[in-house]
Specification:
This protein is an alpha/beta fold. The protein has two domains: 53-123; 130-274 and 321-392, Alpha/Beta hydrolase fold, catalytic domain (Rossmann fold), CATH 3.40.50. 30% of the residues lie in helices and 21% in strands. It is built from twelve helices and 14 strands. The chain has helices spanning 16-28, 31-43, 184-189, 220-232, 245-256, 275-285, 290-301, 303-308, 317-320, 347-355, 373-376, 378-392; strands at residues 52-58, 63-67, 78-82, 88-97, 101-106, 119-123, 138-144, 147-154, 165-170, 193-197, 237-243, 263-269, 333-336, 360-361. Strands 7-8-10-9-11-12-13-14 form an eight-stranded mixed beta sheet, with helices on both faces. A six-stranded antiparallel barrel has the order 1-2-5-4-3-6. Helix 2 (31-43) packs across helix 7 and helix 6 packs antiparallel against helix 7. The chain starts with 15 loop residues before the first helix and ends in a 7-residue tail after the last helix.
């Protein structure tokens, strides 16, 4: 059975669509100029792509029919960005499906089908604000090297013995801090304070002068600023959590921070542990020569790339390879990564777990795709995080 083209969750931290277009052109032959274009695509902030067909809405039954894909047939609760008057919908269980379509329950009430556009983007986002997740939050501002970046601060219960442990949550590429809301209730229940941050070029925080992303190499100082904000507000320990490219940012923060003695642990969800693995995987998925991906990465590392792709000083992929740098890690780490991720292959996460079994916990997860582990199995996801926190952060004194 041939399924339709995957629905629009490419914004969940990846460079698939843009890099694919560029690499096709590379393979066709215009090597010099095309490589520069590809290089720039890799570091340009991603935009949400509405490439999922909304086949129909039944307002009486409150159901929605979507084109079938590996994402839209997943069980669980999800978000849907529409190009209609109502531009965000919550969708629930799969009710029926055939070879071409999937019909799901609408969790957002829709009165007129005309309010929904013909195209949309399927998403692991669900909550739009912390209030929807039933946690109290404060809007705060963090002074980063590029300007003031907004964040949501979700304070722990006042009597919690873990209140002085803060979790800093870092979203992926092509998304914003909304992606991280799903973890706030879990952390609050565990008695922790959480800080859901934004970072440069994500559409919420300020842009840096280049307007481009560094795949973790330029963004980590913004997370460092969040650590300093937390320590200045009474945090004694910090746990870093990142989704997709946010995982790469978290890992770069971990090995570069001036406050490493305060880091109690790391949680990674569908993380980019090694960008070479990701770009090579995407090239194979599109049946493109691996030489194209390698040439692009080589360009991004050279001084010439700084002029052609305007990517600052260039991206050193050796610095981003945390499997090769596994010996530099010491903090407890939980990796949640589905075997069928589909965008960021699980290989580098497994390799890191194999290299550092003394610090890495990595439960086996299947069927959840990319950054949709909460959506697919909220109970299992919550349990994995809670049990890991209980081992790493025992209740009681933080000293």
């Amino acid at each position: 059975m041939k399924l339709p083209r995957r629905a629009g969750s490419r914004g969940a931290g990846l460079v698939l669509a843009g890099v694919g277009i560029g690499l096709v052109a590379y393979a066709a032959g215009a090597i010099g100029a095309t490589l520069a274009k590809v290089a720039r695509t890799v570091v340009t902030p991603a935009k949400r792509v509405a490439d999922l067909e909304i086949v129909g809405i039944d307002t009486a039954a409150q159901t929605i029919t979507l084109s079938r894909s590996a994402d839209t047939e997943l069980p669980g609760r999800y978000g849907l960005f529409s190009n209609g008057t109502i531009n965000y919908l919550k969708i629930g269980a799969v009710l029926r499906s055939d070879e071409r379509t999937v019909t799901r329950k609408l969790l957002t009430h829709v009165g007129r089908s005309d309010d929904i556009g013909q195209w949309g983007a399927f998403s692991g986002w669900y909550f739009e604000t912390p209030d929807e997740a039933r946690v109290r939050s404060d809007e705060v501002e963090i002074d980063t090297p590029v300007g003031t970046a907004p964040a949501w601060l979700v304070p722990a219960q006042a009597d919690s013995p873990r209140a002085s442990t803060w979790v800093i949550a870092v979203h992926g590429r092509g998304t914003n801090r909304t992606e991280t809301i799903r973890v706030a209730p879990v952390l609050h229940e565990a008695g922790l304070t959480s800080l859901l941050v934004s970072y440069r070029n994500d559409g919420v925080a300020p842009a840096d002068p280049s307007g481009l992303q560094g795949l973790g190499t330029t963004e980590w100082p913004d997370v460092e600023a969040a650590i300093e904000f937390a320590l200045g507000r009474g945090a004694e320990r910090v746990v870093l959590m990142g989704w997709s490219m946010g995982g790469a940012i978290v890992l770069q923060t971990l090995v570069n921070t001036a406050h490493r003695d305060a880091i109690a642990g790391v949680i990674l969800e569908s993380p980019v542990v090694d960008w070479r693995t990701v770009l090579n995987f995407q090239a194979r998925e599109m049946r493109l020569p691996l030489a194209a991906a390698r040439a692009t990465m080589g360009m991004l590392q050279t001084p010439w790339a700084s002029r052609a792709a305007r990517a600052g000083e260039g991206i050193r992929f050796d610095d981003l390879d945390m499997v090769a740098r596994a010996s530099e890690l010491a903090e407890p780490m939980l990796i949640l990564h589905s075997d069928d991720d589909g965008y960021v292959p699980v290989d580098a996460s497994r390799a890191l777990a194999d290299a550092r079994p003394d610090i890495v916990t990595m439960p086996e997860i299947r069927g959840a795709r990319h950054t949709k582990l909460w959506n697919y199995d909220e109970t299992g996801w919550t349990t994995a995080i809670t049990e890991w926190l209980d081992r790493v952060l025992p209740t009681g004194s933080v000293s």
